[in-house]
Fold each of these.
Amino acid sequence: MPERIYNFSPGPGTMPQEVLAQAAKDIVNFNDKGIGLIEMSHRSKEFMAVTDEAESLLRELLDIPANYKVLFMQGGASSQFAFVPMNLLAPGQTATYLNTGVWAKKAIKEAELFGDIKVAYSSADSTYNHVPKDSDYTVDPASEFLYLVSNNTIYGTQFHEFPKTDKMLVCDMSSDILSRPLDISRFGIIFAGAQKNMGPAGVTIAIVREDLLNRAPATVPTMFRYKTHADKGSMFNTPPCFGIYCVGLVLKWLKKQGGVKGMEKLNQEKAALLYAAIDSSEFYRGHAQVDSRSPMNVTFNLPTPELEAQFVKEATTVGLDGLKGHRSVGGCRASIYNAFPKQGVIDLVAFMQEFEKKNS
Ligand SMILES: *Cc1c(COP(=O)(O)O)cnc(C)c1O
């Protein structure tokens, strides 16, 4: 077994090794202060600097306009499924959602608790193997916003372009934030759990346009208002300190890789290698339709479930870990987020070719 295996896990996903090494040091003794990072007051000068740096790096890397707040929250992306409609919809108000998979469906269920929700499109009938084009659906004119999931982690699909509509977009970017440049001004709210492309589990980032902070109905509890967190710089209560710190380290690493433009290029290269291997073979079949393919999660099937199980098992023994597909799609899934090394993709492709030779 090599010292560090290739981790294709869909989430928590692989992190840059230099980030892990730095975090291991700082957990015990932060900046040679004689105190560990996770035992420091969140209101200490040192930790405030950590939070400020993480925020300013995120603003710089994603080019976030000044009229947006960056919030470091808890509860995962799943809590945001409720946060969004709770803060944006008064009873009787409408929003349009696109159902492109499990994470969209869960968000729809929560939104229905708060407003009149139109599901304008669903790809459920094709096991969510694609995302819609703008011409495939209509956004209800009364909608406060159009909600979508930019990258569908489970199925391996991605919106390569965001919908063109006069409505504000609200987007779950949990599995592809920071993987490509974005025009933030098209969005009212963007949120993402950190554990796929940004850091460890436990911190969720929400980017919220300022004018939306005052929309929450009076019945929304304090902790569930975006405004509460925005007004206090994510320090209304104890924030997820370790997560924020790690996100900061990941962002510093990302900046050194050429920022989101550099990442996008590398992600395209990695994905192209893997999709080319799938397309050049009769043995492997991609799950996602070609024009919806995700550069983050590559889903594919083998001729039989038995071969798929054997593939995953043998891959693990040579240090290619976490390739089992989600139970709702079956097959295999290679999650190759920002921090996943290109060499791991090259090794996987070689393994796939070898496996095909032996088993077809
Ligand atoms: C993983 C994932 C979620 C769920 O995230 P939690 O932080 O576990 O709640 C939501 N949306 C997408 C797109 C995901 O990939």
Amino acid sequence: MGRSTHLFLLGLLASASPFVSAQSYGSLSPASPGFSVGSGSGSGSGSSSGSSGSSVAASSSQSTIDLAAIGLHTLAKANGLLFFGTATDTNLFNDTAYMQIVNDRNMFGILVPENSQKWQPTEPTQNDFQFANPDRVHSVATANQQMLRCHTLTWFQQLPTFVTTTAWTRATLTAAIQAHIANVVGHFRGACYSWDVVNEALNDNGTFRNSVFFETLGTDFLPISFLAAAQADPNARLYYNDFNIEFDNNKTAAALSIVKLVRAAGGRVDGVGFQGHMTTGQTPSRAAMSAVFRKFTALNLEVAITELDVRQTSLPPTPAQEAQQATDYVSMVGGCLDVEGCVGVVTWEYTDRYSWIPSTFPGTGAACLFDENLVPKPAYTAVASVLAAKATGVPASATIAGIGAGLTGFVASSSSSSSSVANSNNNNGQNVGSTVSSGSNTKANIPAAEFIGNFGGSPGLIPASSVSATSTTNTGSGSSSATGSSSIGNSNGGNSNTGDSNGGGSYGY
Ligand SMILES: *[C@@H]1O[C@H](CO)[C@@H](O)[C@H](O)[C@H]1NC(C)=O
Ligand SMILES: *[C@@H]1O[C@H](CO)[C@@H](O)[C@H](O)[C@H]1NC(C)=O
Ligand SMILES: *[C@@H]1O[C@H](CO)[C@@H](O)[C@H](O)[C@H]1NC(C)=O
């Protein structure tokens, strides 16, 4: 994966320039429903008419974009990360205000089924496979042109009764793991950017957890799982995923050993997921975090923050607690930004409305970037700002002005908009040429070309001087193959791929 500040921006500019001038993008920015631009409110109208490629209808003519309101994924991409995303699941799909933000690909470029892909729901009784719910998550991601992180295969929790009660032998449990993985990974073959193949195999002191898997198979359950996953989807990135490995302790060392153990047995491990279930005031510094990440990337692994939240230990949080939480979020995201090979960040629900924390750790909570009313917190502002600062070279403080107004507009105006924006850029170096309009409102999906066309040079915006392209930067293997015929349908083809080794769309979304 290539990481270079500005590469994304340069690639977009280069790919966009043959089609439309920056000036003409200026009229397009508010087409994304609900995105507040500058101090105004989003007021997109019109309709998408493209059946392939993209079409954008817009009615307003703002010339600047509040950088921090662009969305975390777009900002992450501007840093060369592959994604900023969130966990979600089908039990929440009836909450339209919540889904408005889930569906916003500028905010979240990758989704993770929070529960529905686990062993219990996917194979509740042996050899009876159920995929209706995770298929719906996949469908949402597909419609939004978002990627999918798939989660999880061999884990000691949320297991069906047959796994926990059968009197397994070494041979029968091996076969059961292999069958589960072959079916589940096989079903989603091509759809998953990555799979969390083994989850939480370790105790906090770094010894192996006494799961049914470890008791029956010893550490062999690890290579058994990774070998089966590699066979079922040769292109999905295969991850070991765990929590409390952020502190450079015995558990961190044990996670490194797991990678070596699986590889020594002939298995493929591509990445390690740092769940990032952190606590306010007890989170490593940005420098400490990046140092831990580098221990893993030194093994030719990618890393990602896969389940980020930072919980408050007393509620409701004071302003000081909120400020500390913002610092802690920035330490995590900044630590990732600072490490070549950290590919992205996923939050474990973006809103306190649906966080798992209060029920699991009573008395704690308020752990997410958005509060229960879907209003972004200081932590959101801080994360958006650190991403913007890194991408543009402007100080983080410069991007903070206006974010409150921008995001209030973003949330509030979303339900009244009827515009549709079809964005042909799937961020994988492929122009997929499909529209995403449906229903009365689609999503705030600013085409990348607009993003470039609207920098204004004002405080809080990408300064024009920071975007200066001389050549395209597509070093991935992706190719642009848009079939759209609208004016900007082809504006972002393969050039936006910053050369990650997964370029060329070897995964579905
Ligand atoms: C969604 O459905 C669930 C279960 O049917 C229900 O408890 C919840 O209140 C619904 N949420 C909304 C926003 O309608
Ligand atoms: C870490 O492991 C070492 C031995 O490898 C042991 O001496 C030490 O007590 C362990 N620390 C913790 C906190 O478990
Ligand atoms: C490590 O933690 C596990 C689980 O809490 C415990 O059972 C085990 O005794 C611990 N081992 C050591 C060496 O501390």
